[in-house]
């Protein structure tokens, strides 16, 4: 099931689901409003089932893929180097993306002139403290690891468990074999869930058009133009530079990355794209010891597309409400978008839920989250595609920095 052909067939099925969804959605625009509302709820439920399946599989997927990969590395010094450079590059590229988000907001000015009024008696919400944010990465107890919001703690737990298994040496082999097998099972589970993706995408596309079709003009259109333009600049320029320094021809990178890019674009989940991103990594020649760690962690932690989107959304919301932002606010928007993207769950819509955090830190109306939900499926598609592409670009460079070589294929 792991061939390029499967990826292509899946993409074709998804594209067909999407197109039928668009047709049904437009047709519903002409239906009586009671029928349209009822049908839209059912169509959305088709998509929600997919998201719930992803949410179920995320905790074990993260746990087994990361712990098995860490346990497989006998050389703990090398593991430390991979982890260190992974975090440096992941944070560095997300920072660049988040600055590009501000640039997009300032250049395109998508929300200027709309003139929304902040709700009566509005006072900016109190942002969470740095200590709150830090501690949120470490759940209170084990049950906190089993929810999507506990993904960061799950990563930390899986890394420590993997190290413990490696430290046990021969004694740990049995558990390592189990973790490795379970990791393959989890990745295969995702592939099984993907058989349902075309139906989910049909449902979401039809629902989106039936409910929000007419609103896609005006400020929302401008927002999407700003987001898509700067996201493609980040994709083509930043990742060309990163892969080139890593010793891989950018052309080869873009060609191989196109399949996971499209799968992420249509499914809007970094988690379900993980198996396809891993296949692409293998084709790029990234060694197993690198991508088996950097990609599962990256799927949860490294989200350049989300960082760009969240920073841009903060600027957009301020413009909609006519709130002037000082350089300090802009700095807060950039920093909180980087942290917000790290904390975002790798599921459809995760980035807009976490936008509440960015708006809170920047002191902007939380109503912005509701406003952004309207175009979320379209905004999410490209940000997810960028999220997964960044993981592979960084993995190419990490390979070189830690002194390994890309395998020629
Ligand atoms: N859907 C994105 C992802 O899975 C997260 C987001 O909503 O920004 O990568």
Task: Give the key terms.
single chain; 409 residues; mainly alpha; Proton glutamate symport protein; 17 helices; binds aspartic acid
The second-level CATH architecture is Orthogonal Bundle
* Computed CA radius of gyration, to the nearest angstrom: 21 Å
Total domains? 1
Please give the CATH class. Answer: Mainly Alpha
Bound molecules: aspartic acid
Give the overall pLDDT as a whole number: 88
Structure overview:
- 49% of the residues are buried.
- The model has no long low-confidence stretch (mean pLDDT 88).
- The chain has 17 helices and no strands.
- The longest helix is centred in the N-terminal third of the chain and has 40 residues, at 33-72.
- By secondary structure, the protein is an all-alpha fold.
- The protein has helices spanning 4-29, 33-72, 76-108, 130-136, 151-167, 173-194, 197-212, 219-245, 250-267, 270-284, 288-301, 304-320, 327-343, 350-353, 355-362, 367-373, 376-401.
- It has one domain (2-401): Proton glutamate symport protein (Orthogonal Bundle), CATH 1.10.3860.
- The chain binds aspartic acid (ASP).
- Aspartic acid binds at residues 268-270, 303, 306, 344, 346-351, 380, 383-384, 387.
- Residues 268-270, 303, 306, 344, 346-351, 380, 383-384, 387 line the site of aspartic acid (ASP).
